[in-house]
Amino acid sequence: MKRDVVIGIEIHCELKTNSKMFSASRNSINDTPNIHVNEIDLGHPGVLPTLNKRAVELTLRACMLTQCEIDSLIKFDRKNYYYSDLPKGFQITQQFHPIGKNGVIEIEVDQQKKQVRLDRIHMEEDTAKQYHLEDETYIDYNRAGVPLIEIVSKPDMSSAKEAKEYVSTLRNMLIFADVTDGKMEEGSLRCDINISLKEAGSVQFGTKVEIKNLNSLNNIEKAIEAEILRQNQLLDAGEKVLMQTRRYDETLKTTVAMRSKESAVDYRYFPEPNLRPIQLEQAWIDSIQASLPKTPQQWLEHLIELGATVIEANILINNKSLLDFFIEASKEVKDVRLALNWTITEVTSLVNIMQEKLFEMVSSHHFALFLNCISDKVISGKQAKDVLKWMSESGKDAQTLVNEHGLVMVSDDLALLNWIDEAIKENPQSILDFKQGKDRAVGF
Amino acid sequence: MNVNEAINRLKAIQPTTNACVTIIEDDVKTHEGVLSDVPIALKDNVITKGILTTGGSKLLSNYIPPYNATIVDKLKQAGGVIVAKTSLDELGMGGTGTASFNGPVRNPFDLTRQAGGSSSGSAVVVAAGAVDIAIGSDTGDSVRKPASYVGVVGTKPTYGRISRYGIIPYASSLDHVGYFTRDVRLAALMCDVLSGQDKMDHTSLPYPSTTIAPSLQDNVKGKVYGVFKEVLEAIDHPQTLKHFDAVCRALESKGAIIKTISMNETLLRTCLPTYYIIANCEATANHSNLTGVNFGLTQEGADVETIMTNTRTHGFGPLIRKRFVIGSYGLKDENQDKLFRKAQKVRRLIVEEFNRMLNECDGLIAPATTSIAPLLEGANMNVLSNAHLIAENYMVLSNFSGAPSITVPIMPVDGLPHGINLTCKIEDESTMFQLALAIETCVKEGL
Amino acid sequence: MTLPSSTLINMNKDMILSLADELNFSLSESEVVNIVNEFHSLQELLALLETIDTEGVSEMVYPFESPLLTLRDDEVTHELPQSEALSNAYKAKEGYVSVPKVVK
Predict the structure, then answer these.
(1) How high is the ipTM of this complex?
(2) How do residues A170-209 score in pLDDT, each as one tens digit?
(3) Domains held by chain C: number
(4) Between vectors from CA B41 to CA B33 and to CA B115, what angle results, nearest 5°?
């Protein structure tokens, strides 16, 4: 029997702020455990929440990028449940009045454009991180209270490819707007996929299965494909699909049940009494709209104006750090085309080896100075490859490395003259050849 | 009163009254200010860094907080010295002072009687002359009722006037910080000291500290005292009514106008159930953090769920567990419409009616309680009588609306302390202290 | 006083125990009886609420409802040293709070 696939996606995305959603401790997850916490994050008695302005700003950006209607009167609610990673015993979230509603983003799959509608975007706080050991669990509260947004799509996707493209497109938009670092493998962007099958053309939805903890775009695609297969096989065999939460097992290449969802949990949501409603000023909202960072699409257009090919532009757009590095450098270089060549080839291959570490070692300013050395013919292309490698190892600038390695500074007039004198002494014939108009002499 | 005298007095009254959880002998003045070297007691739900803070619960009987409540910093900056953490009904939930993990608090004027609650110990240490200032908290009437039972001034300024950061909550939308003093002038000064917007409390009022004390005077010529008609009608104790009337006549002789003001009785009778539902529902959620994982008197268990369950079973008294069950029931999704949200809607109607009454006068007055403090084993009242529903519980009106409210002691009833409650318009503490001072003056002058 | 059926809480021991279970504590037999009784006497009070017509009335969540404009600036101004953060914990190990393995 032919069946339609119905997919909806919930994305939890950690915001790039300095401090937490409701407290003034640092938003920094990968650090020594329990050093970025205060009594609020730990849920001590007597604490009260205060709302982070930057977190609201970044959420507004996400709403604007996805064309959500914005509710400028901010309200929060409590979601009550007991769990060891939730120190207050409730999570502060926006159940009843999400800041963003009814958005849409456009994705493209197999040259087909498709609109995916968003149900809502709302703000909430992350839970503590737990590490399960042999027979104990370690809790790190650095993540407790980290600002999160939850982005809930409508069930508008109908294939694994579409789902992957949706997450990929949305993720890129958010990364470009500096809303999140979007690192799925580190959990700063997490996806829950709701998937059900129904008879082709039927209005009756099938039983929904939720797949949790997907940590890469590829796994989203694989997990959905595996789940569609599993559900089809069950239904073909006349069996029922159970309402369940499942996870994707990479070794088994299929989804496995985590827990059944027979009875819905009663979270006893109610309005948070410790945060009064907050009216965002329209002028502030407008200023955020006016200063929205460029979207990937806008960057594409900009890069092409700068002389990049579509392929080059796409390489840059797929790595925001690389793009930022290039854009900063391009402001200082004499030859933008040269900058593009070096970024796409040499820098990219260094990034493949060193990842983000490269950008710590080589600043975009140093890269620009380095490129200008090439433009000014201070160093040859062949030397330049070595120099860039040394820069990435030492963090030093090109000039310093040229000196240290005794490379000839051909741009220095005096040095050039000395060098010519030396050369002539060793090759007196050359100068004669040169004077006689033999071009070959210049290259020795 | 100096710090040493206060500590000695606290120790002396402890065996009979059980007013304190902790007597602090080593705190010192850290700043100079209006309260330099003044000994101050704190209800033991005020978080004090490095000093045991129990909230009156066994579950927190080992809790040494890593931070200070905002008001503790304010008191220290004004020069105050913290000398005691006082007894309270567990987590502030109770009006008797008999529901603390460390035993009942007794009324210093009659040890067979309650001091009222939940700020029982703080009321007692001021009444017994151990300190001049004690901090309390007031969710229903937890400062203003004990104040009446022990004959001290009990103040609860406007909701948000004093920061709640670092106060172990009961019900967040009703919780107010309040305090006990022996006279109204000091009460006004304490409002100036404790108030002011706090960035840590989003619900704190967006104004700087008040400056009421320096210009406080008791001239009430032309001021309108509204007499709360239904409360007076619900009281059948002749001496209570007689004393109240005497105060009204004395105020009139000072040029004040006494005017009877009435409230819809059906609505007034819903104050208690409305309070009961809202307070227990909010409290249930507020105390979900008490699990023994990050703090508290943890009980062992094979897994973390068992640890939480054993900790909460062992740590809470039966009264608390009962209230949490009721609160949790009221919060169930399927019950919210008829219980929690219903109570919140009725709260709105009550507040609209109450604000109308306050707009018809400068301050609304009535006896704070029907008569004297009940015996320790409790009072036996018909729960549906007006004496119970109205006269004993009307003071919760100002917790619903956030209006400033104060209890001022007047003449004893049956030989025991008794007070008048006065409530004024939201944010108008200035008028409240002025009208309260006039009552105090009338009483001092022998009426 | 007679109760409108919509308000009547038909509370039994099992419901009390299930509520207690959700609240993460257990109750003694006598406590359960006590709470069942409390629910019964509560009916009379709740009937008073039921008499109030709240049609079209919105919930009052806060004493003061006018919206505020205040947001906290995104600055790191308040962290506890790790030792203080862990000083009250059930068990601390290697900088973490340690509990017996969480099964769920």
Answers:
(1) 0.97
(2) 999 999 999 999 999 999 999 999 999 999 888 888 999 9
(3) 1
(4) 140
